[in-house]
Design brief:
7-stranded antiparallel beta sheet; mainly beta
Length: 368
């Protein structure tokens, strides 16, 4: 019999769902605060004290994925190369990790490490500590960018995660247990993993490794034997009898999100304008619904595409174009897979009647 353990402060698109039984614990390994996530389609604000949509650096030139550097002799050389680029992150909630992507003080970490924090301290490898100046987050992908006012920092090299192979040695470097930067080694166990980490929240293109991952490692780099960042440590499965199931977001998937957070300040996506909860037989019974699966609308944003076509709270969406919709996550993923300006057919139930509406998707609003 299972249940989910959430160790983060809210994800972007989670659903208020009546969960079935099960026994897998999915741990977000940066912070140690347990809290049920919130459902919403619009992006959440990066931090209350920052104008979240403001670019960090509009002229940012993304660092290309290399992946062609020769391997180093052993893990000792890998750690010596990468460790100066790894930082410890401390908030009032807990500890996490990050890594320097730009010598002018731009640092990559996980959303769940810094989201909602009032104070964020960045400890460099040389012992200096600086307060975070700007924070930009993307809860959907669990990625964030933080800046500090320092120049000339040692930026990490970025590799090409598409070149990874099963059995390839990798290292996890980060602030494990909040006790300072340390390293664990292991191998690539699985590639292109899709992992539901909460109700309505799924991470894609993950790299699974058996390198030991502990609280505080979140946001730190997973590196190859060339000392290149090929993943960002994010989650692990913690269950009795299960060992060595840790996951990192592949750098090839993360780079577009990181680039947008730096250049735009938020990630541009298509937008319908609804909050959702999953419908299952139990929900259908207690709410006297006509269908036992789908995505129930719990809120419609004023003047959004959903509002303009007449969707209302309590409607259950069961179809998007020719695709069947069985959950809120499926609807959100379907919306995000389409283009801004594209018209979509939405099939939904209201009471005992099925309706069809045609909505034109728009650009997601900036975080507020």
């Amino acid at each position: 019999m299972t249940k989910l353990k959430y160790i983060l402060v809210g994800f972007l698109l989670s659903s208020f769902v009546v969960l079935g039984s099960g026994c897998t614990w999915i741990d977000m390994i940066g912070n140690w605060l347990t809290q049920e996530p919130e459902v919403q389609e619009p992006p959440a604000a990066s931090t209350p004290t920052q104008p979240a949509a403001t670019p960090i650096d509009p002229a940012w030139q993304p660092t290309p994925c290399d992946g062609n550097k020769p391997p180093l002799p052993d893990f000792v050389d890998v750690v010596a190369k990468v460790k100066p680029s790894v930082v410890s992150i401390q908030t009032e909630v807990g500890a996490g990790s990050g890594w320097i992507i730009e010598e002018d003080g731009i640092i990559v970490t996980n959303n769940h490490v810094v989201s909602g924090a009032r104070e964020i301290a960045i400890l460099l490898d040389d012992g200096r500590t600086f307060p975070a100046q700007e924070v930009r987050t993307d809860p959907l992908t669990d990625l964030a960018v933080v800046t500090i006012g320092v120049q000339g920092l040692p930026a990490a090299d970025i590799g090409d995660s598409s070149k990874l192979q099963l059995g390839e040695p990798v290292a996890v470097i980060g602030n494990a247990l909040g006790e300072g930067i340390s390293m664990t080694g292991g191998w690539v166990s699985q590639l292109e993993v899709t992992l539901p980490v909460s109700a309505g929240q799924t991470l894609d293109d993950l790299i699974r490794t058996d390198a030991a991952i502990n609280p505080g490692n979140s946001g730190g780099p997973l590196v190859n034997m060339s000392g290149e960042v090929i993943g960002i440590t994010s989650v692990k499965i913690a269950q009795v009898g299960v060992e060595g199931f840790g996951y990192a977001i592949s750098i090839n998937t993360a780079k577009d999100v990181i680039d947008q957070l730096i250049v735009r300040g938020y990630v541009l996506r298509t937008y319908l304008g609804v909050r959702l909860s999953d419908v299952n037989p139990v929900v259908a019974f207690f709410n006297n619904l006509s269908v036992d699966k789908g995505a129930m609308v719990t809120f419609v944003s004023p003047d959004s595409p959903a509002d303009k076509v007449g969707l209302k709270e309590g409607d259950v969406i069961v179809g998007l174009d020719d695709e069947e919709i069985a959950s809120g996550r499926e609807l959100i993923e379907g919306i995000h897979s389409r283009q801004i300006g594209q018209e979509v057919k939405i099939v939904y139930w209201r009471g005992n009647t099925e309706y069809t509406a045609y909505a034109t998707l728009v650009e997601s609003p900036p975080p507020y």
